[in-house]
Amino acid sequence: MRHTALHHVHQRLGATMTGFAGWSMPLRYGSDIAEHHTVRTGAGLFDLGHMGQIEVTGQDAAAFLDHALVGRLSTVAVGRAKYTMLCHTTGGVLDDLVVYRLAEDRFLVVANAANAAVVRAMLGEHSGGYTVAITDLDRSLIAVQGPQAVSVVGAHPDLRYYGIRPERLAGHDVLLARTGYTGEDGFEIYCANADAEAIWAWASGNGAVACGLACRDTLRLEAGMPLYGHELTLRTTPFHAGLGRVVALDKPDFVGAAALRTARPDRLLAGLVTKGRRSPRAGHAVLDPDTGDRIGEVTSGVPSPTLGHPIAMAYLPADRIEPGTRVLVDIRGSREEAEVVALPFYRRQG
């Protein structure tokens, strides 16, 4: 197992550790439900040092990323970010990414931990003919998420959502971004490994509460955010997941363009709420309520701490995703009634 720069801090705090994508990560420090509510009402503190950080530099950096990724990165202003995807030539998703433009010829590509090596390899494979350098960064990433995140990090109201800039926090030089994966306002702090413990202690001293990966999953599901390996896979295109808006089909050429331009998904991602107390889980079958035939599959499901009832996302036939549609979910042999709802399940106020 690989360890982040904060591993000994998590041990000192008594975190329950778990293996994730080859990393030893904190699953929870106490109650994952309490940590979930902390992010919804206060400020949660997350170690995301397992995420892949890849720097792309050079005079062709923007043109290269336009070619390799589905979005149009050349139009992103310096100090701004874009949510995008790396797709296979078949149109299937290899990873979803956040890409920050740090300078005209310098970009930071942030990949999911499980896919970081794949993203790095595929970027290298697609770089032929472009004057670029692709570099893996060994650096920490700390997130502060929740309605009190601004008071924890300090007054940065002029840093807009999906913005990034150099800052000095707790006496250390960092990159401060305002993105997130919880449905709440929040910040990501990119810092040197040697500075991570001091920045963590500073954020904790300002009121942020340590939170683990367990609540991060319930938070992102409530917010209707996809998780690679569940809602996004090599078998799904961005259009299957309802994320066709991130694909710049009018670009002259990019990896996967031919497949994506002809994509006609016969199944689409939908939200489900069940009437019982048992929660659907990934892999559970979705059934036609009249015939009992299997018509879809749950990709993620949890009891929602915020809403107080089970929620799930599932792939269903395109004609079954209208909100109010009734279906059944086979939960370990028991057929539970469910209803299709619009995503996200939860949207923050303000």
TrEMBL record:
Record keyword Ubl conjugation present: no
One GO location term (cellular component): glycine cleavage complex
Binding site for substrate: E188
Catalytic activity: N(6)-[(R)-S(8)-aminomethyldihydrolipoyl]-L-lysyl-[protein] + (6S)-5,6,7,8-tetrahydrofolate = N(6)-[(R)-dihydrolipoyl]-L-lysyl-[protein] + (6R)-5,10-methylene-5,6,7,8-tetrahydrofolate + NH4(+)
Protein family: Belongs to the GcvT family.
Domain GCVT N-terminal span(s) in chain numbering: 6-251
GO MF: aminomethyltransferase activity; methyltransferase activity; transaminase activity
Domain spans labelled Aminomethyltransferase C-terminal: 267-346
Enzyme Commission number, as recorded: 2.1.2.10
Top-level EC class: transferase
Protein source organism: Actinoplanes xinjiangensis
GO biological-process terms attached to the record: glycine catabolic process; methylation
Protein's name in the database: aminomethyltransferase
Keyword list, A-Z: Aminotransferase, Methyltransferase, Transferase
